[in-house]
Hints:
Layout: H1 2-21, H2 25-50, H3 56-78, H4 82-98, H5 104-135, H6 137-161, E1 165-167, E2 171-175, H7 176-196, H8 198-205, H9 210-237, H10 253-257, H11 260-274
Antiparallel strand pairs: 1-2
Helix pairs in contact: 2-4, 2-5, 3-5, 4-5, 5-6, 5-11, 6-7, 6-9, 7-9, 9-11
Amino acid sequence: MKSRLITTVVVLATLILGFWLVPYFMDFMLPVVLGVCAYETSQILWLGCLSTEKKSLCVFARVFMAIGLVTSFLAWVWLQSTVASLGAVSIFFWLVLFARKKTPESFSRTFTLFGALSMYVLIPFILLWEIYNTFGLEVVFFMLVPVWFSDTGAYVVGKSIGKRLLAPTVSPGKTWEGFFGGVLIGSLSALVFYSQMKGELAAALGEMTVVSVLFWGFAISVLGQFGDLVQSNLKRASGLKDSGVILPGHGGMLDRIDSLLFVVPVVALSLSFFG
């Protein structure tokens, strides 16, 4: 618990100081985080595919292979963004390292995983970059705050009063009490953040009512916890507890941003229609 709290404080302080003091901090940060997440996701999917008893991950990878490859290529050609280009290169680099045996099956599996990673990891980062460029940093944080608070709220409430398991076969530590507590706290955090940044957010998104702000926080909180469950399922199928060890007390980088992989595409789609 202590290491988890210390890591949280250090990460938040780094983000706040980085955005405040370092020019183009987002340009530097996103590719680095993406590279780490690509490596961790590669491990999860690779271990699952290597197991003869757990072929569901290979099915998951192949479903997204074609879409992921085409989309990542088009993103690189059309957007020419730092995240799209460096992200695609980093994903490809990590996966080539996993193709140690030079056999047709090994390379086939590598490119299949590349496609899955492009869909699962790269696209949300590209969309996050586009939200940042189009709507500004305030809107990015308006999306991040409910994710962070719902995740922390679910953890604290679940540890304190959680009794009824939410998904015992996927993530035994998650409870219904934690889920509802996290959603409530995430929704209220969106309302507090909007009240403090109303001018900037209204300029980017237009005026929002209290009900619409609460719905924003509610939807993001629910999507974030769903993304966390999906990630837990992938890790469990691969026999892993955490996606990595880079963040003491939390696990891997992917363990901290897995919620965003589902939140960002939905928010980006919503903003494209209503923003």
